[in-house]
Design goal:
Chain lengths: 464, 101
Amino acid sequence: MSVFVQIVYFVAAAVFILGLKKMSSPVTARGGIVWAGMAMVAATLVAFLEPGVLDHMSNVVLIVLAIAAGSAVAYVTAKRVAMTDMPQMIAIYNGMGGGAAAAIAAVELVRVTGGHHLSTITLSLAVTGALIGAVSFSGSAIAFAKLQGLIKKTIRLPLHQMLNLVLFGATVVVGVLISMNDQPSAALVLAFFVMALVFGITVTTPIGGADMPVVISLFNAFTGLAVALEGFVLNNAAMIIAGTVVGSSGTLLTQLMAKAMNRPITNVLFSSFGSDGGAAAEESVEGSMKEIEGNDAAVMMAYASKVIIIPGYGMAVAQAQHKVQELTKLLEERGVEVKFAIHPVAGRMPGHMNVLLAEAGVEYDKIVDLEDVNPEFPNTDVALVIGANDVVNPVARSNPDSPIYGMPILDADRARNCIVIKRGKGSGFSGIENHLFYADNTRMLYGDGQKAVAALISGVKALS
Amino acid sequence: MIEGFTALYIFMLSAFTGYEVISRVPVILHTPLMSGSNFVHGIVLVGAMVALGHAETTLEQAIGFFGVALAAGNAMGGYIATVRMLEMFKSSRGPQQGATK
């Protein structure tokens, strides 16, 4: 029976890798996740056949109940959540995985306190996995609470980083004590888990909402690593392989995101916007913001030959993406070429904006990445900016003193005309003045995203 | 049984595999992919089941139950979230082979 179990695990591990590979192209992505799903079901079923599991019927009943409870809650929440809120849901599901890895270690450690023997190497792997899993668990919970708006303030104590370092050091020391001890006390194990969980919280609270996607991605990699470590403890190759693959791919994804945001990963973790004196470098902006009416903007776009739409998170918040798609269809009927330019960090995560546009029915081949679209702006008649701000701020190119200097931006200012739909006159997420809004070829269309686009639609319709 | 260095080799090769598999992914798929890899580490469910299956005391059962429930949530939530996102991607050139529903 054990051989059968191993064969299924082996196939499952291979299918997970193939599934992730298939997810690297939009054409095959759906097949990839379905495959991986089937492998997960198969692995879960054969886990019942692992030696010893079927020996205690009461435990089997508990397993079935726990699976039913956990998956029912997750099923309902995942079905209901709005696409705009997807990042924090990913965070919470990821945190659950980290918590599960920590729980596996906890069961092993409880057994060790009761006299069961584990080698020092196994014990130290279990403890390391527990630390990483617990940090991912409590940290993800904080990330969720922040993005969901449950925690509004960014809590930063004096000497916060120092305290974190001390707490981390102390946790590691306790972990080493447990690993070196043949029969560690229950109090020591309990202290270890409490400290690890608290560290997860204190390391996440000072991080601002804008950096949260990078942190979620990092915790995703953490959970993968924790799962792999517990896989070593349980001698389970499927867990080792799947966990490690996620750990390394998650690390790469985190780097890609941090790079796209021009925020080195160490900066994300150990500082935050505004604290490095960025806001103090306030300088005057030449020119003034020029307003435009919906109808005039519609005429400009209707008679253009090429329009590039730059959506930001503001568009998603206003739920304007469906209206934007309607406008796109109208313009295309008039023979206007319409493209969507997406900044790597538009939305809350890289690729989040693509999901939101896809939800509204925008075809993915109309959506262009930053490197491909920037050379096209000089030949573009109208760049329409909806709810985006910092990602089109030319200051990132021109002013070395600006906190966003060096961040790759979409060159909307190089289009012949630029129309910016904006709720009010305030500055963006980072609080930095946007010079694009003051440029000669920029016109501001004030109003709620949805209403402003509706005005454009009726304007275009009135022409035909 | 996975012994010492064999485990280390598995770890190293898996790490490179994960890196390679992801390195050619277009930005538009980053969020679904993060969600997909989030689902893949739901395999922790298997380990949690074994831990709970071997539980002997009430405390072990309680922690094990907690672990299995969390792991099941990770797997189920990760799956549904990923499928929901990927369902939305379609091409203007019409349905293509491979993008099976």
